């Protein structure tokens, strides 16, 4: 995509909501792309160490958090061919962040990390350290005089609001119009205040940022530009490396691992990709999955800065509420624009179909955002560009399932009904046919 005509053709295809795979011409060797980065590996290790340190406090705050650990299972998907509608060359594994306790999504990683970091620092400024820092009556009294605020399409608010309220903070979540009613209701039940905005995700973030700037006791989690969020996601790579080793999954030049990451603003998928590139270097290939209505990171990577999905003629309306973001995070882009292998776009009908297939064939309860990466193995293996990229090597695929365990029964049933109606053809298979 280095020629002007290629760029303008890509722009048009994105604007037509055409499902497509884009491979990154700026992909560089990992050591080269990681050298001199502003965000360091030491910070990622510190985030992982912080999660270990917080285990006792988290266990006390959330009895259903096993051992206080914010981690999820890695499991095989032997039914991959039937679920995906494409028989992959190698094994397919799932990273079950949908099963992350308390928040029910990948947001637990970044969100808990940022809120707990802030809480710990605030407590230390008031002489509260060690065990007393996070879950003591003195800490609660201190946190009650402070507000933690965030702007969200739903899941980040759910993660941040729940943990902030549990610690004793006043929690204020600015929700965009995409946010599902059940997510708002659940947050209110957890003790958070929900402020509803008529605008999109970017507008909700901007409103929250503005209000927070007026208050000295308000801490704003800025999803469009947050280092602590990014680090919380990146830390996932350390635990995953241990899970892969324990499962006997080799990751090296002869056994590449292709990781499929649903992408909204970019913090979660790019943070995870950043961590994985540090651990596995060029043996890991990170690919982003976005809705056809909101390919904001693909636009940032391929078309340059300042392009919103509205500029492409798209409306940012998608059932994948976790991915309904008009403009990508610059922080996430800067850290990973030479590390991610590419991105593909997925229509909503395909998302519903995979939600239904995953439930019927593998017993999974996933939300539409969480199955965006299910498009990936076919893009990489059946499409011409993907095959050229693989160059004859048989990869293991890891589908990052980013959320869903908290979806209410009725909502999930409605998703299943939409997915069961008519079989939408797989975009990659259709286009490469
Ligand atoms: C937020 C979210 C993502 C993407 O994370 P970003 O940091 O916005 O890119 C993916 N899946 C689900 C379910 C999410 O809630």
Overview of this structure, please?
The chain is α/β, with parallel strands linked by helices and 433 residues long. The chain has two domains: 4-104 and 229-432, 3-Layer(aba) Sandwich (Rossmann fold), CATH 3.40.50.1100; 107-224, Rossmann fold. Helix content is 46%, strand content 13%. The protein contains 21 helices and eleven strands. It has helices at 4-15, 30-34, 41-53, 55-61, 80-84, 107-125, 132-135, 137-143, 155-167, 181-189, 201-213, 227-234, 236-246, 267-280, 296-303, 330-336, 348-362, 376-381, 384-390, 409-420, 427-432; strands at 21-23, 74-76, 92-96, 147-152, 170-175, 193-196, 218-221, 257-262, 284-291, 342-346, 396-401. The strands form two sheets. A seven-stranded mixed sheet has the order 1-10-9-8-11-3-2, with helices on both faces. Strands 6-5-4-7 form a four-stranded parallel sheet, sandwiched between helices. Helix 14 (267-280) links the parallel strand 8 and strand 9 (284-291). Helix 13 packs across helix 14 (267-280) and helix 14 runs parallel beside helix 16. It is globular and about 60 Å long. It starts with a helix and ends with a helix. The relative contact order is 0.16. The mean pLDDT is 94. Residues 105-107, 155, 262-269, 322-323, 325, 367, 369-370, 402-403 line the site of pyridoxal-5'-phosphate.
């Amino acid at each position: 995509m280095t020629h002007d005509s290629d760029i303008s053709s890509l722009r048009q295809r994105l604007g037509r909501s055409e499902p497509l795979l884009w491979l990154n011409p700026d992909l560089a060797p990992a050591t080269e792309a990681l050298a001199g980065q502003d965000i360091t590996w030491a910070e990622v290790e510190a985030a992982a160490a912080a999660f270990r340190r917080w285990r006792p406090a988290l266990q006390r705050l959330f009895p259903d958090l096993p051992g206080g650990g914010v981690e999820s299972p890695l499991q095989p998907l032997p039914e991959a061919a039937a679920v995906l509608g494409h028989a992959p060359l190698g094994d397919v594994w799932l990273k079950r962040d949908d099963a992350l306790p308390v928040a029910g999504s990948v947001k637990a990683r970044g969100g808990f990390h940022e809120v707990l970091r802030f809480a710990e620092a605030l407590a230390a400024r008031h002489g509260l350290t060690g065990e007393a820092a996070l879950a003591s009556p003195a800490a609660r009294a201190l946190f009650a005089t402070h507000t933690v605020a965030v702007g969200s399409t739903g899941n980040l608010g759910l993660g941040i609001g729940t943990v902030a309220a549990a610690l004793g903070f006043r929690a204020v979540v600015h929700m965009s119009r995409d946010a599902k009613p059940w997510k708002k209701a659940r947050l209110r039940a957890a003790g958070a205040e929900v402020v509803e905005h008529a605008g999109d995700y970017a507008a909700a973030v901007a409103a929250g940022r503005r209000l927070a700037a007026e208050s000295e006791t308000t801490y704003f989690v800025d999803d469009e530009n947050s280092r602590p969020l990014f680090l919380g996601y990146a830390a996932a790579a350390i635990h995953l490396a241990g899970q892969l080793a324990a499962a006997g999954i080799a990751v090296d030049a002869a056994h590449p691992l292709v990781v499929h990451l649903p992408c909204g603003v970019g913090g979660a998928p790019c943070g995870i990709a950043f961590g994985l590139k540090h651990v596995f270097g060029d043996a890991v290939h990170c690919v982003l999955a976005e809705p056809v209505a909101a390919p904001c990171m693909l636009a940032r990577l391929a078309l340059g800065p300042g392009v919103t999905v509205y500029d492409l003629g798209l409306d940012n309306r998608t059932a994948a509420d976790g991915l309904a973001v008009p403009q990508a995070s610059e922080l996430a882009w800067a850290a990973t624009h030479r590390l991610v292998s590419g991105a593909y776009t997925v229509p909503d009908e395909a998302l519903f179909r995979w939600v239904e297939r995953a439930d019927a064939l593998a017993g999974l309860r996933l939300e539409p955002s969480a199955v965006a990466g299910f498009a990936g193995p076919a893009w990489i293996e059946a499409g011409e560009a993907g095959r050229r990229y693989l160059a004859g090597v048989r990869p293991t695929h890891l589908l990052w399932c980013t959320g869903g365990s908290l979806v209410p029964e009725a909502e999930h049933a409605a998703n299943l009904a939409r997915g069961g109606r008519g079989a939408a053809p797989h975009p990659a298979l259709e286009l490469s046919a």
